[in-house]
Every structure is written in structure tokens, then in C-alpha cells.
Amino acid sequence: MQVATVRDVTLKEEYLLKLWDNYIQDNLVESTPCKVAIYDLRSGALIVASDKFYLLQNEMCNITEGMKYPNVAYKNGITIQNHYYRVHLADGKTGIYAKDGLNGCTVCKTWSFLIVGVHDHRVQSDVCNEQVMRLGDYFRKLGL
User: Distance between CA atoms of 100 and 122, rounded to whole angstroms?
Assistant: First the structure.
């Protein structure tokens, strides 16, 4: 599994990359077949991601809008890598949970990051959702 990193990194992003190697890679990506990407919330820049997993610019805009306005997320759903997911939960603060049959996605917002995880039929939705939200809780505890 390869991890994609983009551009020069800040100290905060460097810390995240070290975490990726240890916690995220072992506990989220390799223990479950989830694909994960972490973006800088302010700039929208991709910091780190599973191999060949990223959001298109319009998808990032729609997700951030859905995070601010949950009624928009419920109405329009979200699209990740041109795959549409119907929103089942959007709290307007920290997360969006959406599904399409056996496939699903979880979006978690922290102070600094937007974490996006998707899974296919090989994983139960709650497994990927729980791991992404735990990662978000961990970053929030660190003030990130």
C-alpha cells in the first residue's frame, strides 16, 4: 500500500504523516479495507491519502458545504470519487455518515482536518465509521 503526500508540509502536517505510518496505516487501512484521505480544513489541500484515493475539487466543496448545512447534505447526498452516497446522518458539527447499498463513507471534521473514509461491501459500515470517527476524536484531543 502506498501513501500519497502532496507538496511541502507544515509542522502540523509532518506530525500527521508520522501518525499515518503508525496508527492510521496499521489500524485503519490494513485492518479494514477502508480508503482514507486527510485534508487541511482551511486550504482544502490533500495532506495524506490511501493509494489512489482523493476527492475532486467539486466533491470537497460539496462535503464542506454539507458539514456546515446538514439539510443540504440530506437533500443532495455526497459524492466521493464520482460515487453517490445517500446521507443517513449529518450533525452539522463533526461528521457525515452516508451509504449506497453495502458501500459507505464517513466524513469527520476536526479543528484542522477533514478526514474522509470510504469502504466497500467487504466491511460493515460501522467498522469504517467507528475508526474514522475515533481518529477524529484523537486529533480533537490533540487540538488539531
Answer: 14
